[in-house]
Design brief:
Elements (H helix, E strand, L loop, with lengths): L6 H4 L13 E3 L7 H5 L17 E5 L2 E10 L8 E8 L7
Antiparallel strand pairs: 1-2, 2-3, 3-4
Keywords: Cell projection, Cilium, Flagellum
Pfam family, one: FliMN_C
Protein name: Flagellar motor switch protein FliN/FliY
Amino acid sequence: MDDATPAAESDPVNPFTQVPIEIVISVGKSRPLVRDLLKLQADSVLPLDRRVDDPVELYVGGRLIARGELQELEGEQAGQLAVRLTEVASLSGGL
């Protein structure tokens, strides 16, 4: 077995290695008053609690698993957003 390949990826007996999971990427939050929310329409701007250069957070099942930076892909996938990970939670203790 290659040292760079995690055991879970190379284990054909473990069916969980083939189950997709959803990762939620959080870029920020907003807490408008309901009266302000009711005024929103096309072209309204809703400010977030983060700046463009701030890290985004990655969640699985509501649990923070990593942080990263938004990037735009190039080549055939130009214009598509991606996340470059800068911090990853350990299996034992989180970030």
